[in-house]
Input
Amino acid sequence: MHVAGHDEKHQEAVRDVRDLVDESITIIREVVAEFENPAMLFSGGKDSVVMLHLAALAFKPARVPFPVVHIDTGHNFREVIEFRDRTVEEMGVRLVVGEVEDSIRRGTAVEQTGVGSSRNPLQTITLLECIAEHRFDALFGGARRDEERARAKERVYSLRDTFGQWDPKNQRPELWGVYNGKHRTGEHFRIFPLSNWTELDIWNFIHQRNIELPSIYYAHEREVFKRLGVWMAVSEHLAPEPEEEVEVRTVRFRTVGDATCTAAVESVAYSIEDVLNETAAARITERGATRVDDKISEAGMEDRKRRGYF
Amino acid sequence: MKTLRFATVGSVDDGKSTLIGRLLHDSKSIFEDQLEHVAGVSRKRGDDYVDLSLLTDGLRAEREQGITIDVAWRYFATPKRSFIVADCPGHVQYTRNMITGSSNVDLAIVLVDARAGVMEQTRRHALLASLLGVPHLVICVNKMDLVGYDEDRFMAVRAEFEEFAEKIRFKDVTFIPISALVGDNVVERGENMPWYTGHSLLGHLENVYTASDGNLVDARLPVQYVIRPQRHGMEDYRGYAGRVAGGVLRVGDRVVVLPSGFETEITRIETAEGEVESAKNGRAVCVQLADDISISRGDMICRPENRPRQTQELDAMVAWMSGEVSLEPGRIYGIKHTTRAARARVDSLRYRLDVTTLKRTECTSLTANDIGRVHIHTTEPLFVDAYERNRSTGSFILIDEASGATVGAGMIRDSRA
Output
């Protein structure tokens, strides 16, 4: 076996993320110092796992001084929900779950029907209801600017009006790392401590610290079918149409979201190091490869963000 | 090597978006689906070639109107270095955009059209970069393909810029002749300009040395947050968390805490990587001290023989960012300086600086995109250094108290000068 090539590839994948870590920790501490009622979005996905680890580092040896929030569509992968519950237990943080199901029951959200329907857009409604109910004035999110074009333009402190809306034309300048969290009653901030991280940086941090993630991030065999050019997993939440052929493939997930709109990629990356090397060599963006929700329109993310999405 | 944060400034006509697209494309930092998307849009519009500028235009309004609204951040890496790019539009709201994008960058790239030479906006951008204390400047003389790759033309543009640059301070200026459209000297040197012997732009970005740019002399730790674990056995633990804002902190250092003036010693420093012996400017730390003294957020930890100025009077250059409210003498704003918040009254407005000619004119207010010299009185003492010496402890923001918006960016002058 030729090992040198593998080592070279690994060398190219390795990044020094210390500056990013310091920047993120500084942001998290600043928010806790200045806001009355912050919380952190936590889905069990890799970005939110990294963010929660950074929060733990920021306040060590004290506990993370805020709760975590999960907006649950009810259509999540079983492995991820198990992981979520175990992680918050281990880290000693309080978990607040906002159920999309509850919003549907209340009639504030209306379930879509038909092929390709998803509860993904309904999350915004549940999220805003959850923020109002708990009076959160700052909500940490794991979004990164390298993910998507609209996100590339969003500030670290993203002001949301009383409707939760983002106004890209009216963002506060952010200068010298001096953040301004002033807001009026009813307004809140979304805070993005991972703004400057790339997908590869995230995997470097996970690799360096040997952080546990939900198992579906690593290669495994799974029943999948092709839809809109990507591999969708067969699950209790998503069944193939009659003409869609089910196959067993070795896949993994690059992002973890609602099972109805998150696709798998074919991969033989079984370990953190394998994924790190695969990510360094990837030729397709993370969301491009896996997110059906972004394919809706040219401005899919921008429009959703304007309405209060993550 | 340390990640390089750089800003690109210029208007659509300078080929700035094309340059960034070219950098991303030729350094293989563009993903297939992104390129496919851009190629598709170009085809739909009937362009002759793939318009790489489309890679950087993010929002619907921008695509529809072909403009860039605000600063966009891009990320790419080569085997040598990672890069964070702040893409600042240069035409509208240029001061606001450029300051937003460049307040903390290591390097700024200013584009000049080889045919037009140094224009009013070139001077404006270079001046802003100088005012912001950006350590490295690169002047890219672009569109060399349209002047026949003529060395004399390049040298003439360079001379023109140098004549103007004598009036402003720059430690490090580099000139590179490029064609963003064709790709000459962007990533590869190319064969069209054998007379140019320097690095390509990417080569320069990969090699520019930034490790000594920040202040490594004056130890400063603005206390951001006090860590007091509510856990059994840790009742006496006090950790003072913050980001080192200058110099180096070492275990065993004698330190003084401002404003109380109590002196003590650093007994332990923790970073994300664990316990360390020393931590330099930029590191997020949690320090423990030998004595149990009262310290809260907004206090400053420094060396007894090297203290920032403790003052309620600031002499500063202020860049005004708001189109809704103006800066006027007598008005009161919120001020945030490091981790300290207070209120500030503008006592006097001495002049407005014309960022194209450097001329000072008397004025009674500052409006959007103006820069002026002001005297400010604060309700509480701040611990400041001159901006020129320290970009963290020398800067502040002004906040409109009614809307909460950030309206001004301030850079403190050395009052002794």
Q: What stands out?
A: The radius of gyration of chain B is 24 Å.
